[in-house]
Fold each of these.
Amino acid sequence: MVKQETMLDLEFRSWLLEQPEGETLLRCYQCGRCTSACPVAEIEPSFNPRLFLQKILIGDKSIAENQLVWNCLTCEQCEVRCPEHVKIPHILILAKVRGLMAGNVPLAALDRARTIISEGRSLSVSSPMLKTRTKMGLPDLGTPSMDQIVAMLADIGIVGKLENVKSVYGDAEDE
Amino acid sequence: MSKPRTYTYFPGCMIPYRLPHFELTAREVLKKFNVELETHSEHSCCPEPTTFTGVDFEAWVTIAARNVAVSESTGNETVALCSGCFHTLAVANHMVQEDEELKKRINKRLKKSGLEITGKHTIKNILHVLHKDIGLDVIKKQVTNPLTSLKIAPHYGCHLVRPLEATHMDHAENPQWMDDVIRTTGAEIAEIEDKMACCGAPIMPSGEDKALTITASRLDQIKASGADAIVVVCPTCYTQLETQQAKVADKFETEYNIPVLYLGELLAFSMGMTDIVTANQRRFHRVKLGALLEKIGGTP
Amino acid sequence: MTKTAVVIGAGLAGIQVAQQLTDLGIVVHLIEKESIIGGLSTHLGRVFPTGDCALCLDASTEIFDGQHRRCQYRGLVTEKKNLKLHTLTEIKSISEVDGNFKISIKSQPRHVDLDRCVVCLECIEVCDVNTPDEYGIRGGTRKAIFRPIPQGVPLAPLIDMEHCTKCGKCVDICKVNAIDLEEKESTKTIKADALILATGVEEKVPLDFPGYEYRTSEDIITHAELARLLDPAGSTNGEVTTSSGNTVSEVTMVLCVGSRDLDAAEYCSQACCTYSLKHADMLRDLGIDVTICYMDLRVPKSSEHYLTLAREKGVKFLRGKPDSVIIRNGKPMTIVEDTQSQKRMQIESDLVVLASPLSPLADQNDALAEFIGEYGFISRVAKEGRVYACGTATGPTDIPTSIAEANAIALQVYTDLEGGV
Ligand code: SF4
Ligand code: SF4
Ligand code: SF4
Ligand code: SF4
Ligand code: SF4
């Protein structure tokens, strides 16, 4: 049983290392500069990017289901200061991706993603807004070929996933 | 007049459908320099880099690459006014350029729509266009209403600048391009602590309290600098620092009242096009511009 | 036929290799760009592994019982007939014809004749000019005619013409007519059979490492600066003070500042862990609290006792690389994650000492460009049978290792030139 768990964990780590820029993780020497640079860590003691990377490095996949990873601003302050150019926010993004099916995705993020794959935009375009654009003399932007986009996304598998996923975040998301 | 310089304009979602005054002022200002922004109906959501990435990265990079490929087919360079869009397109483009495997994988998907991404396409933001392509001296010549009475806090925002290898901006910690452009209007630059601090917006969906704490700290820094207004490029920063400003002030029982302008609005002021800003101010500006307009001699 | 070797750089490795070769019957020209020999060690005060004066680590049996060393300044660098020291001298070009080098050098004037000067120092007394002392800290000054450090060899003073007013007072007082205010620079070409690069390293001035506000505060210093503060013969008489003159009670040290960093020096500077410990020990002896922020402590076996001592003396160790050292309320504050307790800390102290990288000096001289390898360092044999390197020119290291390497290279040069031992 323990064995099986270990294998699963290593699979998470190997998957991550295979993603674009995922292998930058291996350069991390655990100095902690990222954590001391991070504006979220400054206000939230349990948000610790170095520790998150350490967990991934040793094959602990719990991080994917940890809601804290969604507290990353993707501001890259850590990355700018990292002496080893580790793509820290990107690695946290990859962790989030792996937590999707477990529901580790904020409701608003899920809504946005669903709007994107159905309408091609992250927000619904209202008709008053279209009128405002015309009034301002701004051009009509048209609509992309959604069938083409959806076909691609179905291939990747995200369309089905988004139908099934349930966010573990409550309605009152914060805390 | 000579043939206009044309860019393929990548609109995204936030600017065209929520904050169109960004697009309006950018277009009007760029017209002064004979620059045209051409749209393409095949452009979709970029997709935005703060949440969709974490839902499905492969889908994110694929849609982004598709948008770049659409741009590439026009033969013109791309300009994205929104920093989120710019970041997405620039990063995806850079990844494709660096990673042959990824490029193959994506081009296989794009082939069905007759599109291809090479990784060589040029993606710009408004500062590349103003600072590099048009040039400070040329901008200065169009400034008819110098804003010498104003002290401006430039808020760059993270996604406009980082990561440098993809954005090709001037500096990851101490960028100067927006400062330089603002100075052409005659305005003074307010020295803010932590030049590249984040506005907090990206974590609104997952941790509003923390997001607003970060926003408050940013507004505190700017207030301490004595700036008359904040100037931004990014619509998401705008939403956080402008639209949410009153909420932040309430939450932390303080007052800010710092107007926030899009860079295009500031340039419009300096080029005698105050009316295109004032015509829309009530709809898009929650923090009143009255005092600011008085200072620069416009009608509030 | 007598062979000639040119040694570039009169730091400890250069002095060592030069002395050894001279003793083996080879004519040596020792070229030094500064006005005195000793290189980086002249800044250091006490050095490891024994905590002796840095200038005492040269080879001889005289001073330290049983140890193979002596004070270099009591040595014969300026006395040996076959060892020609050229101070204030730089290499202009190196050319090679039929296996022989032609090395052209350019010397800046000292304005004091080394053969005449009797080191009475009366000239320094009478000079009215006061200017900041390069070796001083916290406001030390020196005259226009001066000696960088009292033990500096050559012992005679020199004149800094940038600050000299040419008043002539020193010329008048000198009883042996040693001073020539009009002395000009000179050039010379030396023929040599072998070239030894002992160009060394310097402690990088940490002006441009993001996060560390060295530029804005005199209370954020480097180890070379701390050594000056700790030096009993230095401008503070060994008292460790803040920029405002207060006594220091808490010091934070930051290791690996700009070393092992893809944006700065990618290599480990090797010696900084040990000299941080050495300085921490010295500070503890003065009753000062010390916290060392480290990633890992890379201390060679020969210096491990410094670590033991530091632990015994109550130096605090914190594993983490600080993101920043900023000034808050007039004092330096270090922001760091203690990676063991996983806590983000803000440490206030009176003084922060940065372990700045040791960076190679060889790549500052174009004439040496062809010999330079990775990161600006040179391999021990840069050109088979002709060009050698030793000391920190081959990579940062501590003094005992430098000296050992110099000895090894001396033997190799001798073997190559004289065809066997
Ligand atoms: S700063 Fe970079 S190397 Fe250091 S712990 Fe963070 S990711 Fe790892
Ligand atoms: S990118 Fe995320 S982890 Fe890095 S500094 Fe910003 S918030 Fe912290
Ligand atoms: S006065 Fe003359 S002899 Fe005496 S130290 Fe000066 S130069 Fe030398
Ligand atoms: S000539 Fe120059 S060095 Fe000599 S005493 Fe005058 S100022 Fe000093
Ligand atoms: S010797 Fe120590 S402080 Fe110096 S670079 Fe190496 S690990 Fe860092």
Amino acid sequence: MTTIDVGMPVSGLRSVPHLPQEAAKQTKREFTSDQEVRWCPGCGDYVILAAVQAFLPELGLKRENIVFVSGIGCSSRFPYYLDTYGLHSIHGRAPAIATGLATSREDLSVWVVTGDGDALSIGGNHLIHALRRNVNMTILLFNNQIYGLTKGQYSPTSRVGQVTKSTPAGSVDYPFNPVSLALGAEATFVARAMESDRAELTTILKAAAEHRGTALVEIYQNCPIFNDGAFEVLKDRSQQEARIVRLRSGEHVTVGAEGDRKVLVRKGSGVMKFIPEAEAATGESGAVVAHDPTLDDPSQAFQLSRLDTPEMTHVPMGIFRQVSRPTYDDLVRDQVRAAVDTAGGPAGDAELGELLRGRDTWTVE
Amino acid sequence: MSSKTVQALDRVVIRFAGDSGDGMQLTGDRFTSDTAALGNDLSTLPNFPAEIRAPQGTLPGVSSFQLHFADHDVLTPGDAPDVLVAMNPAALKANLGDVPRGATIIVNTDEFTSRNLAKVGYTTNPVDDGTLESFHVHPVALTSITVEALAGFDGLTRKEKERAKNMFALGLLSWMYTRPTTGTEAFLTKKFGARPDILAANLAALRAGWNYGETTEDFASSFVVAPAKMPPGTYRNVTGNTALALGLVAAAHRASLPLVLGSYPITPASDILHALAALKRHGVTTLQAEDEIAGIGIALGASFGGAIGVTTTSGPGVALKSETIGLAVSLELPLIIVDVQRGGPSTGLPTKTEQADLLQAMFGRNGESPVPIIAPRTPADCFSAAMDAVRIATTYRTPVFLLSDGYLANGSEPWSVPSVEELPDLHVAFASEPNATDPKGEPVFHPFLRDEETLARPWAVPGTPGLEHRIGGIEKADVTGNISYDPDNHDLMTRLRQAKIDGISVPHLEVDDPAGDARVLVLGWGSTYGPIAAATRVVRNSGRSVARAHLRHLNPFPANLGDVLRSYDRVVVPEMNLGQLAMLLRAEFLVDARSHTSVRGLPFSTVELADVISTTLEELS
Ligand SMILES: Cc1ncc(C[n+]2csc(CCOP(=O)(O)OP(=O)(O)O)c2C)c(N)n1
Ligand code: SF4
Ligand SMILES: [Mg+2]
């Protein structure tokens, strides 16, 4: 078996054909399909679509080598609106279908678009297995904390107490934190972004596309019809600063505006806590935490993901984890390639004949 | 050297039976290989419990292997054994009911201890209490003689020596039926090459068994069964699962497309996954998925990418895959679903055979969702059935069901290996350029513009410039493939999908009616082929006429099926279910098809079916 060099991070787009250098730059228009977009007015999905359509040309890939696979939900209609190859599949199964496609076609850039119900409820099993295998693909999880397409039932990310059509007395289901879940499955790339922060979303999408392995990007998305304002406190300029924890590699983890800044420290017991900047400077309350998404051990990233509470007091955004690990599809293809190479090339008629005859034949004259 | 007599026989049925840990399957397999090498025709029936090691010495723990070999063509593994090898009291008790009086029984007396007898409810020892007086009994202290023969092997524990007793039994039976043991010796050398002491012990036990037969007076004569007259060719012995795996690989080779298997282990289909996983050298990719749904999802994803996507499973797995099969029907992409049927419902009888998934394959999805169904008839036939499934899937861009069963999967028979050049050419053309123009005269690609003859849509794989398109499980507009909720369009698309499957080209049904005057037709499908053919042979040998036909294509049916059915006074349909094909025939052709059914987890016996045919003939006369 040949081995995969994991020393240098390898781009997730390495084996995908790029446009020649001299080719005219692609534009958003070329990535926009002729289909009428059918989301509700004001849906956060529009914002994400615009960001993706604008950003895809930047990758410089041949459009025909990009495939979007989705499940079922409002969010899963996404592929219809991009002029790439697309497969709108069935509820929850997109990661499995994308695994088959990505493993058998290394020349494709494979994307999965899914919702909180699609990915974490009916498709939870496929999601965690894709993440643990580390198949080379990018999963965009549109989290609106509700089932949109089926008209407003609670989802596995809905808050306890959330009143929806199926929980008139308030939900009693304890929600998943998608980032914690992904880290628990040892995903190699995990990030969170806000649909409304186009610049940050684009930066993260770019890093996710470049990542070789499964990249999971949770995108907070507003559903104005069934769960309006779910993320309002994070969008509201007056509260934003005090709540959003912007994760920056190599920098201290902080929250709050200049003058009112808090810094994350780790106490002797290992517990993490935000304390005022001035207090942190003394070093008495614990060691200041610097963010390092490349740590092999996912524990710190997991701890950061736990800062997040249903009240959204502190919500980390950005890239939680970005490590390299051999990808499943590379390893699978490697085994096949090695077997073929060792045998002296692809099997011809003679080799197939030998296989059919087996080792124990007899002849009847 | 030996003064013993040698008698010629035309056919023999041997059943090896013992505890799950006694190595009966291996013993049977080896005896089969050595028999095949001699040129006998043969058919085998392994029968083992679902538990890997049920409590030792108990009835649930009994595992057996039956082999029928002859100097003429063999159609079934045989109704009843001529020889039963019973390695313990449980094996004797579990199998004695199948052994006809006058048959030979070899028992391992070492295991007939009062404790072991009590485990299966024998209060006295059947070997000497008269229970077996109507049989030729050979009491052999198999375990202790084996241990004695290995006295010189100081490096081995008593347990390890005892474990070689199956080789002793194999040696003894090989002597009895004059089988060469060279094949087994080579096999053991390969298997135990890394443990020279174990290898030597097994070889010694094998030889000791042979010598025991030759020297003890208990065995007065040995037997020969002359080679069968088989059509010229190169032969090997194959199980259905092996043949099926080879058929898939051969089909991919002849289509020049990669084979991608997505599968989740389940008895009795797992051996196909194992076989294909070992064929990376042939470019085969296998992915063991997290569940059945992912297994078929992976296969479908690969098909979208231009590979031959395959998923292998058994009935419970098909239940989980149903929604994805529906998606494949809607996407109109090639996909192979192998269902190795077992006893159901639910977990049912995992290691036993049944044919009760026909209606699940036919109708087990939401909406109008037609899927072609192909059923192999014998273990070796799984090869060409698999190739045929791939032909239909790729030609018509449709998922295809391949319905094997536990009996075909594990049973084996000699197979005349085809030469690669004579295999069908399965090349497919992917779409490579736009197939229409838009109102402005610009070239466009319509993913649902159909081929006029086959009604298949173009297979345009990602990576092809200019053919970017989106497809999904929502209803699509005819031709353009855009989302459409239009009532007339849905009606049209539903009828087009049905017409495509109905129009698949399948060969006419051939009827076997040598006398040409039969009034009764026996119609079967799948693995009942052997028992039905054997039963009709019995009836014809008694001077009566009966016609026989066997369906390989269950959907669509051969075009002449209705005419065939209507040309007989009586149609009898034996099935290992409660009448599923009969129900389809009645619905489709309004004929009075008579079911004969059995769901005992075992293939029909020849005698049983011959009786059914005889009764039917009498009713008509
Ligand atoms: C097998 C199956 N079960 C149920 C449904 C109904 N269904 C469609 S979308 C959906 C939930 C979607 O929620 P989410 O994934 O959060 O997507 P959103 O619409 O919010 O973007 C459900 C329950 C279905 N299409 N298929
Ligand atoms: S229901 Fe909500 S998520 Fe769905 S399209 Fe409308 S606004 Fe968007
Ligand atoms: Mg949702």
